[in-house]
Amino acid sequence: MTSLERFPYYDAFPFAWYPIALGDDLAPGAVRPVRLLARDLVLWRDDEGTAHVMDAYCPHLGANLGIGGRVENGNLVCPYHWWEWAADGTNANIPYSDRTNQKAQLRAYPTVERNGLVMFWFHPDPEVEPLWEIPTLSEYLTDDWVPLAPAEWTVRCPWQELAENGPDYIHLRTVHGAASVPDLESLEFDGYFNRMRSTVEFSTPRGPTSGRIDTDGYGPGFSVARFSGIVDTVFFNVTVPVDWETTWSMKLYRVRGPVGVGEALVRDLKKQMAEDNVIFDNKIQQPLPALADADGPIMKFRKWAAQFYVAGDPVATERVQR
What we know:
eight-stranded antiparallel β-sheet; Naphthalene 1,2-dioxygenase Alpha Subunit, Chain A, domain 1; alpha+beta; four-stranded antiparallel β-sheet; globular; single chain; Rieske Iron-sulfur Protein; 34% strand; 19 strands; 7 helices
């Protein structure tokens, strides 16, 4: 089955802030080809340290700027004929001409660095500026929180299927072995944001331990989960479609307290993601699910998620018409 057969709602990439790289992995002057959102992009950092994301193919004669391109004078230089492109996507210089090409334009995506991540704004309409901001989180700013190794997965389903795990809190007991079903205190949807507050009994070698799981979502590409009770732990959860069949998911963990305990908790969280992936890689969406009274507010979540899918992306139009 194709992803469109498995997930009939998935006829557009949702608009969002999406991750593209860890900031520490992109040195000044670096140029990198990236394949995301079923399109080729170029990620580069100028000499002053600012990261940029653009469509990859040179408007001149189609070279991929991410393969052999270089940074010069704050511009991205094409490897083919050395045309230079400014950070806003305009043609800044043609080395063998006295004039630039004013009509030539690369799509440049708004790009920020937050919490150790380079993120770019995608909307099918290039004229739509970012509709919300990604916050700088306090856990990233202080030395009280110790970073642990991030974890990455490529999952065979859309972002929405992963995110639906939040309101589907029953699965924490049935899939991951929580000592009891979490108690959902509140789930709020506010424009492009969502907030979930819950208490849970964690299973530990010493028996059940009371704790909390509190999450904050900022559109489809970025959310934050905070665990407390065993050891204070936070992870930044980011996702981005690679293409119509797969989604790249990464979690960046930080702990406050005994690092060894935090590492044990994070190992368990990584194990849980691996358990989830078996489900994600092989499930379909039931548009009208047969729900039980005690199921979480799944349909409420789906109604919130639907706002991020809008028409206008030529890549999506081509997909649906095939």
